[in-house]
Task: structure prediction
Amino acid sequence: MTRPLALTMGDPAGVGGEIAVAAWAELSRDAGARPFFAIDDPRRLAAIAATRGLRVREIGSPDEAAALFREALPVLAEPLAAPAPPGRPDAANAPAVVRSIARAARLAMDGVAAGVVTNPINKKALMDGAGFAFPGHTEYLAHLDGAARAVMMLAAPALKVIPVTIHLSLADAIAALDAASIRETIRIAHAALRRDFGIAMPRFAVSGLNPHAGEGGAMGREEITLIGPALDALRAEGLDIAGPLPADTMFHPAARARYDVAVCMYHDQALIPIKTLDFAHGVNVTLGLSFIRTSPDHGTAYDIAGKGTADAASLIEALRLADAMAKARASGGPGF
Result:
């Protein structure tokens, strides 16, 4: 039997419930789509589904999801402590949101779920209501999995990008950047692209930190002292790497044709290009975990929550990509 994907609640005041229902409406009509189930409050999702003439069904176990998926959205119950009016986050619901993530991860680690797809969260609400001590999903899932390091990759049909530093201010990101982090990030990505994407020899393009990649030291020396030596060490291990490259010339079509993934030194250096190229279809992927995790590449969208206008395209892409990654792992491709 095909193992289903686990979809987390996300912030219940955001658009997660709306896009979950919309994604189910589309994928349930696709005979080739992998079933998924939501870990959420069934009453909340039933109310959202009813506005569209759709159905949800509470399940007692993920094993029930596949049989029900074509007729209703399966929901593993995680009740909310308080009402969740659209656009108005309530810290009282934070524990349920965190439990939803933890349950999904456990089901994936136990082999019950084929992977985890996470809806967007509000980190401040989780901090206020549940003492959430992590910068985001990536770090929390690494903690649950016992992974020493997890890597965030954003993927769209036209581009895949990885930032070496993630949820840090620019000043803190520069201070945190070191050769060891660059090497470890690329090694994790190399293994994951082989295992989960079936790329036998991934090609990496790596940016510099400074304008013009430092221009030989005239605009900064990190390319000479940190980035260049890290890349040389990886090339000596047999990895296919170009760089350090000027970031402003890495993302035009001819440049993108020369690599499988771009590695950048900080968050916006990586995310601005991919969100500019394809905002609607970007998917957040966590590499380096024992289980598969994807997510839509957008936030809670409080400003449109409850208005029926949220676009489910990124969540649909996240579910499809998680399915493809699960199939790649099951096929025993070049990473095995």
